[in-house]
Amino acid sequence: MRKFSQQRAAIIEELSSVTSHPTASEIYNMVRRRIPNISLGTVYRNLSMLADDGAILRITTGEGTERFDADTSDHYHFCCSSCGRVSDLALPFCGELNRSVEEMTGAHVQRHSLIFYGECADCVALGRSGTA
Amino acid sequence: MRKFSQQRAAIIEELSSVTSHPTASEIYNMVRRRIPNISLGTVYRNLSMLADDGAILRITTGEGTERFDADTSDHYHFCCSSCGRVSDLALPFCGELNRSVEEMTGAHVQRHSLIFYGECADCVALGRSGTA
DNA sequence: TATGGTATAGTAATCATTACTGTTATTTTT
DNA sequence: AAAAATAACAGTAATGATTACTATACCATA
User: Fold this and answer.
1) Same domain, residue pair B45 and B77
2) On chain B, which terminus has fewer CB atoms closer than 10 Å, C or N?
3) By the CB < 8 Å criterion, does B113 face chain A?
4) Chain-chain contact of A110 with B61 (C-beta, under 8 angstroms)
5) Domain that holds residue A82
6) Shared domain check, B66 and B77
7) Domain identity same for B61 and B79
């Protein structure tokens, strides 16, 4: 049975306290304020376990590093190519898509990931472009 | 102006000859049959340039390594968690989604990526599960 | 044929992530 | 509540994909 460690609790709490979809090392720095000698490996291991359990979401944007989200409700993301930020979208979730793909392919579909890429409103306003 | 090198031509040709969405090192091995001393760095650099130019597609599945696709038409992908294969889906493409997100957020949306995850029909039939 | 620009091969470096090892914490059993 | 069993930890080393670097080679044009 899975044991309840302070480290795992702190990771969940810190991740739940933000909406910024932090990376593993950002979470590491957040948790270190509470548990100064926590190991980066511990953060990675717990994030993986939690994501595998479905307790948190792992977001793969392709911009180098994985990001994590404590909000496990079905939703989609936007990733800004200029500042690198990832934000939630209030787009309706299409659960039926999974069923469509199953019928179309015979595969067993577990989930899908929909990510939009571009320049966020802030970056557009500031005239930034291209450079992360 | 961008120069047309044999290496780049070979990379495009090899990638166009398959529908398997190979990784950079798979493409490296394919091209090496024709240009034995081509460098892995050359493959990576050309794949990046081609993807940036929109001449090929870069597919980020989150299963460790990036994959590439010579088919640049708008389409979606399925990624099998058991065998790791990535396949094309004949799902209708929703270009209007980009516009919706723009109106909703004020961002400038360039593209979106929709990937389905699960166990492909072959793996379901063979009773494999979980292990890549 | 000299010049400037782009690409290349080969190698070294980077960086996110994972694996390993001996120790500590948590749970379960007595 | 002590002991036994097991999961998790800290710290560090290893892995592996990707990028950067450097000196050389190719190609076009003046």
Assistant:
1) no
2) N
3) yes
4) no
5) 73-132
6) no
7) no
